[in-house]
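Final report, closing paragraph on structural work. Over the funding period we assembled a curated collection of sequence-structure pairs, and we close with a single example.
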Amino acid sequence: MVIFSHSRMDDLKDADEQIDFQTTYVTDLVKESNYGYSLDVSEFLHAWFKYKMADITTYRDQSYTSKHTGTKSPVRDIPFMKAFDDSMQSFLKQ
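Its predicted structure, as stored:
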């Protein structure tokens, strides 16, 4: 049985420890449910957080790799902060 530990959560010092705590919790749930796939995405979350802390306005412009397919996303032609056209046509063009 997976037990969520509020006391352990209160002792976490930074975002990296929070990511690791969340990862441990989710992977423990996955083990108990016999899901059969690893949901450990801590590597991706650590990278995402690093980009976010480096520049809050550009972290969405980074390319990330899918946990399940291994496919790296393409880099957008237009930076996220300048992409105001949210039409279907604009989305499909990318």
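The chain has a mean pLDDT of 89. Residues 1 and 92 are 45 Å apart (CA to CA). We thank the funder for supporting this effort.
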